[in-house]
Inverse folding.
């Protein structure tokens, strides 16, 4: 699927880490939300509220998932889940285009 | 208006200048298009195909419009137009969140 139809898009961007991580929020007819975002190379730590599914559309990054001791590498066409109320760390190697789904 | 409703959003980002300028494409029910984008600090030159209306949602940048000799400063809540088939230069001072409308 190359596009999302019949969605509401918030005009204002979500901006983190001086703009090195930014995203746009999409709201679907069923009330569910996704963000489409860009991460520039760098190291970041993020926390979740809801469970998240992170789909990597392009790019490459290493991820340390909650409770994990080993970093795992993700790139184009791969995905990972992060539990709710958890922290995870990212080392973004190249500009990364992602889609994050928030799962209730 | 804080959101756009009933739009189609392309999943893949538009990525320019090593990710320092990125945007998402929105298609409206009437077929018209807008992009919602982020520009990180830096100097850029862009060209238009269609006429563009650039609305600055947040940020600050200096713009040299086609044919102009003086740079003009734009920030939160301001906007400028660029004619079709023209080049314009930007000096982005702080992370800038914009909405670009393509006008036929």
């Amino acid at each position: 699927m190359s596009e999302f139809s019949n969605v509401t898009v918030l005009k204002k961007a979500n901006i983190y880490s001086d703009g090195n991580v930014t995203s746009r929020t999409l709201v679907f007819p069923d009330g569910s939300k996704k963000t489409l975002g860009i991460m520039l190379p760098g190291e970041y730590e993020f926390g979740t509220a809801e469970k998240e599914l992170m789909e990597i559309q392009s790019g490459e990054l290493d991820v340390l998932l909650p409770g994990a001791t080993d970093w795992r590498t993700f790139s184009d066409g791969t995905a990972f889940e992060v539990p709710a109320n958890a922290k995870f760390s990212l080392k973004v190697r190249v500009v990364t285009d992602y889609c994050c789904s928030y799962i209730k």
